[in-house]
């Protein structure tokens, strides 16, 4: 395994202990991977030969493909991550040239650093060594693909001496084996940025979207900001999720309830802890919060350059003859559809999923608003609605 400890051993012939101690675990492993890859006689040469040389993750997309993400938060997350990689290279890697000429060579150029990080981020496991948790590259174990949870029949478990792969269901001869990626169910935006693909059939759809903007300033503005911060809701993005139980807008509604508080409502619950905004504060507050969330969701949906319907048509045209035949009964696809690269197809898939999720949330929220308006809604829990995307 390539761990931070092993990476330090690989690099200690070039760098003093003090310089190694200043490097993060990830940067240590990336530098070691670059050094190993440049060494034709290294024992890991066979493993290096099977590692990908190109990636379909958004970090490696050309600008025209990134533009196809439109308003998806994945676009802004990718830009921030690219900036962070550049900063890490300039601050942590480039100065190493002054310590050893080995790091002045093209083997340690910026593109090689980005390649090494991409290998680590897409193939590492979290392991326990000596009671300490760390990332590790584990040859062979990183060769498995992933799939929706229903198709996954293998899990991994770390022991003091090995990484064990455990079958959780019978596996037929010749059957492809899938493993889960990440600790929790990842959104398609995360999968696209970290692994370079989307899962169209994922049972749980989720997306990150900008947090609702602050309400108009009032006498409680500072107190509301403090309350949002105390509850961990003062973040630039929030999660919107749709699963078998419906659309979960709990984070959005909590923010909306706080922003819609009147002075009397603020005094009516424990403002110090924020207990109370996880459920409706009052019928009037809930109506105001729902209206604000509705406006925000609609604003995010309208910020995309294309409509849900045009993306459906575009994707059908890009998927080839089978999809085209299926669409022929609906009047055909036309000859004006642009040719899309694989990256652009993935971008259209993602933004289409996000638009469907936003549309489902809006439809469910409006239905709940109607029930609140005529007092036929049970206000005990309006954080999850039963629309499907």
What's this, in brief?
45% of the residues lie in helices and 10% in strands. By secondary structure, it is α+β, with helices and mostly antiparallel strands.
What class, by secondary structure content?
Answer: alpha+beta
* Fraction of residues in helix: 40-55%
Which residues sit in consecutive blocks of at least 5 with pLDDT less than 50? 321-335, 376-381
Q: Report the biggest beta sheet as strand number plus sense, adding barrel if it closes.
A: 4 strands, antiparallel
Radius of gyration: 25 Å
**Order of the strands making up the biggest sheet:** 5-6-7-8
Q: How widely separated are the two ends?
A: 42 Å
Mean pLDDT: 85
Shape call = globular
The DSSP helix count reads: 15
Order of helices and strands: HHHHHHHEEEEHEHEEHHHHHHE
Number of strands: 8
Strand fraction: 5-15%
Short key terms for the protein model shown above:
two-stranded antiparallel ribbon, single chain, 389 residues, alpha+beta, 8 strands, four-stranded antiparallel beta sheet
Please describe what this structure looks like.
With 389 residues, the protein is an alpha+beta fold. It has 15 helices and eight strands. 45% of the residues lie in helices and 10% in strands. The chain has a four-stranded antiparallel sheet. A hairpin with a 2-residue loop joins strand 6 (237-243) and strand 7 (246-248). The chain starts with a helix and ends with a strand.
Question: Which secondary structure elements does this structure contain, and how are they paired or packed?
Answer:
Elements: H1 4-11, H2 17-21, H3 25-38, H4 45-50, H5 63-67, H6 73-93, H7 110-123, E1 125-129, E2 132-136, E3 154-158, E4 163-167, H8 188-194, E5 205-210, H9 221-230, E6 237-243, E7 246-248, H10 250-259, H11 263-267, H12 283-302, H13 308-318, H14 321-328, H15 342-373, E8 384-385
Antiparallel strand pairs: 1-2, 3-4, 5-6, 6-7, 7-8
Helix pairs in contact: 1-3, 3-7, 6-8, 10-12, 12-15, 13-14, 13-15
């Amino acid at each position: 395994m390539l761990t931070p400890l092993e990476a330090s051993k690989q690099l200690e012939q070039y760098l003093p202990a003090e310089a190694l101690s200043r490097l993060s675990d990830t940067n240590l492993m990336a530098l070691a991977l670059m050094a190993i890859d440049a060494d034709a006689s290294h024992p890991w040469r066979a493993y290096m030969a099977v590692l990908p040389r190109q990636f379909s993750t958004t970090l490696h997309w050309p600008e025209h493909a990134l533009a196809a993400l439109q308003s998806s938060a994945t676009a802004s997350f990718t830009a921030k991550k690219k900036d962070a990689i550049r900063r890490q290279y300039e601050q942590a890697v480039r100065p190493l040239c002054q310590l050893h000429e080995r790091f002045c060579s093209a083997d340690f150029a910026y593109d090689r650093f980005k390649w090494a990080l991409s290998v680590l981020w897409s193939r590492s496991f979290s392991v326990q060594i000596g009671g300490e948790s760390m990332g590790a590259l584990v040859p062979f174990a990183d060769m498995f693909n992933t799939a929706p949870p229903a198709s996954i029949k293998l899990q991994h478990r770390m022991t003091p001496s090995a990484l064990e792969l455990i079958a959780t269901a019978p596996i037929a001869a010749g059957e492809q084996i899938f493993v889960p990626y990440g600790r929790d169910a990842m959104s398609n935006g995360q999968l696209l940025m970290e692994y370079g693909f989307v899962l169209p059939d994922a049972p749980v759809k989720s997306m990150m979207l900008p947090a609702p903007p602050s309400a108009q300033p009032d006498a409680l503005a500072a107190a509301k900001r403090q309350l949002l911060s105390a509850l961990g809701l003062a973040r630039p993005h929030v999660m919107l999720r749709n699963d078998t139980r419906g659309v979960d807008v709990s984070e959005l509604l909590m923010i909306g309830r706080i922003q819609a508080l009147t002075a009397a409502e603020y005094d009516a619950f424990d403002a110090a802890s924020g207990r109370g905004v996880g459920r409706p504060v009052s019928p009037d507050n809930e109506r105001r919060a729902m209206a604000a969330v509705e406006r925000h969701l609609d604003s995010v949906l309208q910020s995309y350059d294309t409509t849900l319907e045009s993306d459906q048509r575009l994707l059908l045209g890009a998927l080839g003859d089978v999809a085209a035949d299926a669409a022929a009964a609906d009047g055909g696809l036309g000859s004006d559809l642009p040719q899309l690269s694989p990256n652009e197809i993935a971008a259209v898939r993602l933004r289409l999923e996000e638009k469907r999720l936003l549309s489902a949330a809006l439809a469910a929220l409006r239905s709940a608003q109607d029930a609140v308006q005529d007092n036929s809604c049970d206000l005990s829990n309006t954080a999850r609605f039963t629309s499907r995307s």
